[in-house]
């Protein structure tokens, strides 16, 4: 059953329960009102019968009139009549009926007769044990019926208000929940690899809960897209690794033969002879080919990881020592912001040093195309971010990475550099993932086109975040 049906069924049952309850209470109130009026009438009639005994016995009927007049102004009393044993009207608030004789039998005990508009209470008058007359008091039920009508009207207004509130509630549920849910279900059903980047757009009237669900689905789509891209990237690397291994095996042996043959020929040809310069060219090209083969073999080799307790600050310092001459040559200032109480990480120092070397070289090379840059700087900051990681941030104020390239920088052999191989960052990421770490890169273009967009940022250039697991101390330590 759809949600609208369940809500309608709930309110239908609730209204039925309220109606039954209202009918019960109205009926109960009616009975209480009638009982109160009947008790009041019975008391008046019996009291009047009691005080009328002496007047009837002594034939002082004028006193009966004064007694009747004394209670005629009681609330809701229509008329009061006193008759003797012969049904002769001795006193009546309706003066035209005095002296009349009514047919009918006298009552021997108090009785109450009632129709829709009147309640008649009849009480006997006994003198010395003999029935000598009756006292009749008629009450109007108009005020009682008016009270009941008012109660019914209040109840109907209450029901009407509840119906209006229920309809409004159902409309709100329909507009803020049901329709957005239907649209969300349709959009989720239509999700495919081509729409993973498209955000789910729902009506502005959607409830906060549906908006949160939509946002969670968008986040899930982004995570799915990242996971898909990562799987594709790893698949590419694995495929390229296999191709590289096969390619290197098929080329290296003939290349070694060519290299050996060139060396043999070089022994037989004098260095001053014509054509000896071609041997040097062949040697250089063989060297270049060997370099290309080494790049291919980066994907086929799985570096063994020997993880030990490692001080990340010391690894960074050792890397900077190697790169100091290059930084001095290019006029680059390295700013260190080491966290003094940085936790030790659980890593292979040699491999992490290789990662830091690649990342720092990328930052240094980011200044190659930068013009009019008097303040070239690379900031290195370490921190304990929590969650079982230590963190290294490498931030430069270089030219940055264009948005269209940022999503592809971890793809094998993808490079924007004229002399780049496109394997540095993929290898870095591979090493970091072998350490159960995280490597992310963010960039803000430092050019005129992006200047206005990046005003809110404190820096322009590239920021790399490397997170490595904290070394877990044992009980013996």
Q: Indicate the mean pLDDT.
A: 80
Which CATH-level-2 architecture of the largest domain?
2-Layer Sandwich
Parts with pLDDT < 50 across at least 5 consecutive residues? 447-457
Q: Give a quick account of the main beta sheet: strands, pairing sense, barrel closure.
A: 5 strands, antiparallel
SS field, number of helical segments: 10
End-to-end Cα distance: 62 Å
- Our estimate of the beta-strand percent is 15-25%
Structural domain tally = 3
CA-atom Rg in angstroms:
52 Å
* DSSP strand count: 12
CATH uppermost class of the largest domain: Alpha Beta
Physical arrangement of strands within the biggest beta sheet: 2-1-5-4-3
- What's the CATH superfamily of the largest domain, by name? Histidine kinase-like ATPase, C-terminal domain
**Could you state the order of secondary-structure elements as H and E?**
HHEEEEEHHHEHEEHEEHHEHE
Query: Roughly how much helix do the residues carry, as a percent range?
Result: 40-55%
CATH topology of the largest domain: Heat Shock Protein 90
Alpha-beta classification: alpha+beta
Rough shape?
rod-shaped
List keywords for this structure.
alpha+beta; Beta-Lactamase; 5-stranded antiparallel beta sheet; 5-stranded mixed beta sheet; 3 domains; Helix Hairpins; Heat Shock Protein 90; rod-shaped; 477 residues
